[in-house]
Amino acid sequence: MLGWSKSYEFNDTDFSTAIRLTVELMQTPNIQIQWNYLTGVCCDSVYGGRIENIQDLGILDSYLSQYFVDEALTHRWRPLGMSNSLPSYSNFQDYINSINQLSDRDLPSYFGLPENIQQAWEKTTSMDIISYLRNLNLEKHASAALLGDDLHKKLLPFMMLWKKLNQSQDFIRIPTPTPIIQKSLMENFISEEYCYAVTVVKKIHKTFSILNKLSKGAVPIEPKYLEVANDLLLYRVRVRVSSCVFDLCNSRHPKFGKSFGTGPMIQRNT
């Protein structure tokens, strides 16, 4: 998709929803059309709900500000500097003729983009492909290294770093805490976050302990821990870490009688 940071799956359902909202607004008795309301709904829900990049949200808002204006109802309206204009009469065939004058391709000028945007997109795509192939090559070498005798040597820097990070703290030795009901919501949130943080630290420490034994041949090889070792060698964190925290957030506590911490904690990791 030209102009966007990635390809988004905008579909006919999004379009029909936007059309339906526009028709409903047109049928209201208000003299002035609520363009700001329509822009907000499309930007935050209809189309914006699929967008993951803050810069792309800005692009969407820029497009909507070109179309959802009073000038769009006049024949003088030309969005993004397009040469085509709307017919000055309410003749259906005139509108069909205007549409037929448009190119079969999505020209960059239709989106207010420079003519060389296609070359820029091709360059970015090529760089992504090269980066992907390099990662495949690194992963192949890393996987081969896991089968060698130097696995412990390669994992040692990570384990030493983890040991150093825990020197001034005692989270790995203290009993796993449980949330305590506090007087305010903020205090409850801080208490829950602390409990989850300690639990995650303990899980990471347990994983490093198993990796240490596995690299020395003291325990049988398990595929899931080999994957963790492979990720470390590739300096990569997989979604399983977020899933681990997600599961912790959805654990039930008898004092609360419901899932707690399902607000900021989950939102931060999804």
Summarize the structure.
It comes from Photinus pyralis. The chain is mainly α.
Query: Any idea what the radius of gyration is?
Result: 28 Å
- The first-to-last residue Cα distance is 24 Å
| Structure annotation, total helices | 10
Structural class: mainly alpha
Largest sheet: 2 strands, antiparallel
Q: Give the topology string: H per helix, E per strand.
A: HHHHHHHHHEEH
What is the domain tally? 3
Give the strand content: under 5%
Q: For the residues shown, what is the average pLDDT? A: 75
Classify the helix fraction into a percent range. 55-70%
Structure write-up:
The chain is an all-alpha fold and 270 residues long. It folds into three domains: 12-111, Region D6 of dynein motor (Helicase, Ruva Protein, domain 3), CATH 1.10.8; 115-144; 146-251, no CATH class. The chain has ten helices and two strands; from the N terminus they run αααααααααββα. The chain has helices at 12-26, 35-46, 54-67, 92-100, 117-146, 151-165, 185-215, 223-233, 239-249, 264-269; strands at residues 252-253, 258-259. Strands 1-2 form a two-stranded antiparallel ribbon. Helix 5 crosses helix 8 and helix 6 runs antiparallel to helix 7. The model is unreliable at 241-270 (pLDDT under 50).
